[in-house]
Amino acid sequence: MNLKHIIAGLFVAGTIASCAPAITVKYDYDPKVNVRQFSTYRIEADRQRNADPIVGSNLNQRRIAEALDQSLQGLGYKPTEDIGADLIVRFFTDSKDRQQIQSNNMGSPWGWGGWGYGGYGNQVYSRQYEENRVVVNIYDSRTNNIVWQGWATGQLNTKKNERNRDMAFRETVVSIMKNFPQSAGQDYGASTR
User: What range(s) does the DUF4136 domain occupy (predicted)?
Assistant: First the structure.
């Protein structure tokens, strides 16, 4: 193997490592619901769906609940432990094993790898990783219907996040909740970004 192959291989390996999937956030809501009527909330972990032993651990459930509480209070909603809260905020997490495959696309235009003509050959690399998801469902407590749902998908259990999991979970929840109406008493049309 010559120096060009080694350099190309190191470049592709570095590219794969740096291309870890970012956190992707999406949301959905019921446009028929007038959210101006809501001002109080209660947060609950969805115990049936938090099956992942790591991301769904009690430690991470507390981190998510605290971040949700801070986000909602920052938007003007008021927390209550009362059963009569306007909104019930339920969240859960899950994880899936994923595989990323990448090619360096360095094949020669002269066909068959072009080894005699300066081509480098096409090399394919793969990596295994765990994809995590945090889902926040917000229900109208009177009807028990979801009025808003937000979710984030990406890698939360990375080496980079190991030192400060509090911040990783807080940032993930904040990125989800920035799509929720900006303050209590506003409707979706006036508050979405």
Answer: 25-181
pTM given for the model: 0.69
- Taking the C-alpha atoms of residue 175 and residue 43, their distance in angstroms, rounded to an integer, is 18
The span from the CA of 120 to the CA of 8, in Å, is 8
Q: At residue 166, what are phi and psi to the nearest 5 degrees? A: -55, -50
Q: How is the chain split into domains, by residue range? A: 22-100+127-191
Contact between 91 and 56 (Cβ < 8 Å): no
What DSSP state is assigned to residue 157? S
Q: What is the pLDDT of residues 58-113, one digit of tens each?
A: 888 899 999 999 999 998 899 998 888 999 999 998 877 666 667 766 655 555 55
Residue 121: count other Cβ atoms within 10 Å of its Cβ: 14
DSSP assignments along 159-193, one per residue: TTTSTTHHHHHHHHHHHHHTTS-SSTT--HHHH--
Domain 22-100+127-191: give its CATH architecture: 2-Layer Sandwich (3.30)
The percent of the chain in helix, strand and coil, each rounded to the nearest 5, is 30, 30, 40
DSSP class of residue 70? H
Tokens representing residue 104 in the block? 């360096």
Residue found under tokens 């090399």: 123
Residue 175 sits at φ, ψ, to 5 deg, of -65, -30
